Amino acid sequence: MAETLKFCPRCGAAVTPRDDRCPHCQTDLRPFRTAPASKSNSQKLNLSALYANPYREGMKRLKARESQTPAPAKRRWRWPWSKE
């Protein structure tokens, strides 16, 4: 995000540069104004790999994203009328 927000990222209401909170939805705007510099450069797009095999490149990105976030616990499916 940019340092100068013109609209609230949550509700889309107009905000001024002095506002710390959105006047409409009361969302804290400070985290959106101070974006880390390394985030914009963290993922570089390799167009030659993407055009060569878009499926493989997409799967690499998916595996990288899944490795960063913890996997949700698997729920076992059961019949609604069973007593398990």
Cα end-to-end separation? 49 Å
Morphology call: flat
Q: How large is the count of helical segments?
A: 4
Structural class: mainly alpha
- Quote the average pLDDT: 78
Enumerate the spans where pLDDT stays under 50 for 5 or more consecutive residues: none
Radius of gyration, in angstroms, nearest whole number: 21 Å
- Total strands: the figure is 0
The percent of residues in helical segments reads 25-40%
Strand content: under 5%
Q: Can you summarize this structure?
A:
The chain has helices at residues 30-33, 37-41, 47-52, 54-68. With 84 residues, the protein is mainly alpha-helical.
In words, what does this structure look like?
By secondary structure, this protein is mainly alpha-helical. Helices cover 36% and strands 0% of the residues. The protein is built from four helices and no strands. The protein has helices at 30-33, 37-41, 47-52, 54-68. The longest helix is centred in the last third of the chain and has 15 residues, at 54-68. The radius of gyration is 21 Å and the shape is flat. The model has no long low-confidence stretch (mean pLDDT 78).
